[in-house]
Amino acid sequence: MATGGNAIRGTRVGSGPMGEQDHGYHADRIAISYWDGLGNETVRYFAAGLPEEEIPDIIDHPHSGLPAGRDKANPPEIAKAEPYKTHLAYVKERRTDEEAEQLLEDALVQLRERRGQR
């Protein structure tokens, strides 16, 4: 026979004489729905006596991870991630030859000034 621990068989560790009403499970609550940008709904429960300004307008949707708002018609927009830039995209953004020559000239002037100071 395997024995272990000091819990009495048939009881839960940490349980006591308190019932559900003592834990607050039967407190008056209000249900508020939140929608994310994909149309997913989640319901959060808040205490009925909680002031309106303490109830958040935007939460993180637990399943999609997107921000969710209380307005079903206008949910928060999905953040747009910038796609990975290829080498060709960087080449297209490269400076003109005139700008490159000016940068080179400025760098050479700074280098000559430093060498002249030493």
Automatic annotation (TrEMBL):
Entries under InterPro entries matching the protein: RbpA_sf, RNApol-bd_RbpA
Keywords, in A-Z order: Transcription, Transcription regulation
Pfam family, one: RbpA
Region (Disordered): 1-23, 56-77
Claim: Membrane is one of the keywords in the record: no
Composition bias type Basic and acidic residues, residue spans: 58-77
Complexes and interactors: Forms a complex with the RNAP catalytic core and with free principal sigma factors.
Function (record text): Binds to RNA polymerase (RNAP), stimulating transcription from principal, but not alternative sigma factor promoters.
Family that this chain belongs to: Belongs to the RNA polymerase-binding protein RbpA family.
Record-given protein name: RNA polymerase-binding protein RbpA
Organism: Microbacterium capsulatum
Lineage start: Bacteria, Bacillati, Actinomycetota, Actinomycetes, Micrococcales
Gene (UniProt): rbpA
